[in-house]
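Our collaborator T.R. sent over the components below with a one-line note: 'Predict the complex.' Nothing else. No constraints on interfaces, no templates requested, no preferences about which chain binds where. So this is a plain run: every listed entity goes in together, and whatever single assembly comes back becomes the starting point for the next discussion.
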Amino acid sequence: MTAAVTGKSLGIASCPVCNQLIDIRQPEAKASHCPRCLSGIYIRKPHSLSKSWAYLMAAFILYIPANIFPIMTLTSFARESRETILSGIYQLLVSGQAGIGVIVFFASIFVPIFKIGALIFLVLSVQLKMQWRPVFRTRLYRFVEWIGRWSMIDIFMISVLIALVRLKELASIDPGPGALAFAAVVLLTMFASHSFDPRLIWDNLKEKENV
Amino acid sequence: MEIGKTAYCSRCGAVLFHKHGPKFDRNLAFAVSGLAFFLIANLFPILTFSFSGNFKANQLIDGALAFFQTDYWILGVLVFFVSVVAPFLVLSFLIGVLVPLHFGKPPKYVEWQIRSLIKIRPWAMAEILVIGIMVAYVKLGDFAIVHAGFSFLGIIAMVLATVFSFASLDFHALWQRVEEVQQK
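Returned assembly:
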């Protein structure tokens, strides 16, 4: 690995919003705002690791009620049937909708677990100053950033169902506490990945080179 | 850098910058059509549903409104923001910046508009809504007669137009153009 010249070593920050390069050793940069788009600037995201940990812990805890409690309840002729994330997927699979079932499984089960696991691994890898495959870890981070939003599928599905199936005693669908917990998991994991700064992966490598 | 070339991060290979050139007409055209499709998406039903002689249709806004009739109004706020407000704002800010530039005038509050645009973009989830609607369609199909409405196509068209309006948008060139126009 060739030692790259970094903005950090030169005292140059890149605006987190518009990517304008700013020489932060200049006295006029003391205001710490991007001259072009007026966002706050920093060499690395502030408190990146502790923020990521906080969001990840909260997401991890809420993932349990998200799966235990029903995400929605169908009431038809005074008969209630509750659906959790897993039972919804199971119903899609047994009713011959395997394709859609796989998509929902992917978005609602695989993505949240994968995301929480991958981010915990990334945060730990920075804290333990791991030297292992920085390119792979950076790509993993980009993938996590990209894929996280897709977990919202179930929330949108519920929003459509509760709007349509509202026929008084005949049939009605109501959201359940699982939906609230699940939406919180999606948001918290998105916040967690936004707060992680992938450049930290590379900072550790350089420290070792300098020793 | 020449027009059409791409710069990559020397460490991880991420695309840093792709040079598209100084014209934004194509981006503007797609953004305006995206906004037109957004209006269509709001005017007509997304799905229509009939069950034992009862007929129901839902519109884009109804997904968020339905949550307000339950204990989970906070989910209504979330769904309203990510499926209606954010996709609308993203297109509006883009048009708000590109229209004045097209006529060679400096856009108002341009820093604020572009910054908001970049920050809101990850929260505009219309493409995910499309998949959510498809899942709902399949689930309802088991016990009722469901049809896709005109607005379903409207949302898909809006998603595609938004993707195309950003696909060739070069923010670096955009800032340069803004600075050029401001100095005039």
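Summary for T.R.: The radius of gyration of chain B is 20 Å.
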